[in-house]
Amino acid sequence: MHKIDAEAIENIAVGAALLGTGGGGDPYIGKMMALSAINEYGPATLISPEEVDENAMYAPAAMMGAPSVLVEKFPKGDEFVRVFQKLEKYLGKEIKGVFPMEAGGVNSMIPIIVAAQLGLPLIDCDGMGRAFPELQMVTFHLNGASSTPMAITDEKGNIGIIETVDNVWAERLARTATVEMGASTLISNYPSSGTELKRSGIAGIVSLSEKLGRIIRSKELDNQVKLQKVLDITGGFDLFTGKIVDVLRGTKGGFNRGKVIIEGLADYSGEEVDVYIQNENLIALKNQQPLVLTPDLICLVDLETLTPVTTESLKYGKRVRLLALPCNEQWRSSKGIETVGPRYFGYEYDYVPVEELVRKERGQ
């Protein structure tokens, strides 16, 4: 058991933004709302999946839609609890705790807000170990859990319940509703027993986010030490440094889509990396050859500070470092690759683990 206070929120926001691979919404907006919630209601309590009641019901709360919309379309503030309580009422069963469904900017913060406002525990797990753009792209789906019944609402007060025949249909119908509601909504889905949470959840994601954020925000460590600590903890790789020379993006079908072109600096002078985006960074090509492929994590960070750079904050001239982190092993199963591999997103590449790509890149 661990209290999520203001300092923890600052750290989680940064660490989850790193794991969010550019997606999950602006961490600053979510952070300010979470700080306001604990200031009013007191710190949230974090518990491990091992501490949950196996027979009780738990559920996530999250934003759905295009992260860039949050820059101009702020939540009203009561949507998070409203959507959570709507699902609880529909189920006819008390929900005993909340958890993040992904690691990423605002979606790491919303469950903290709900936990603080309702006095519920926050469970230290998620369903991705990173961020992905679609509802079926969670480890709960890989284990056969249903996304529905699902509650969905917007800042205007529109609210509803969706029940579907499978999780792909849940994504399709909820995405259509999200587009009509202004390209961003608040949802609560995948209601799960404690047993399901232990089986399908990726344990320790909130604690990991807090640990990574504490390192990145440290005033005592120099950047090289910070970088090495982050790589050691995540098993990651430092693959490229460069300057952003072009950003192509737009909002289509409820997603942010685009590409960022990075021109190499220092040791990488004369080389180029293209990162393709659908809310999150999905594939990185170096000189048109695969450097990192989904579901492994592509993390762009500020070259000087290691602060994560989300997709909506990419801009010409920004100097960045590209880090690659191995994904959770569940994503490397055949169903995992079918669900979130490069070909699902329309890229004509077979998934190759980042460790193998790095060995090839380094001639090992």
TrEMBL record:
One Pfam family linked to the record: S-Me-THD_C
Domain S-Me-THD-like C-terminal, chain residue ranges per copy: 166-354
InterPro entries per UniProt: S-Me-THD-like_C (IPR048350), S-Me-THD_C_sf (IPR024071), S-Me-THD_N (IPR010318), S-Me-THD_N_sf (IPR027479)
Domain S-Me-THD N-terminal: 8-163
Coiled-coil intervals: none
Protein name as it appears in the record: DUF917 domain-containing protein
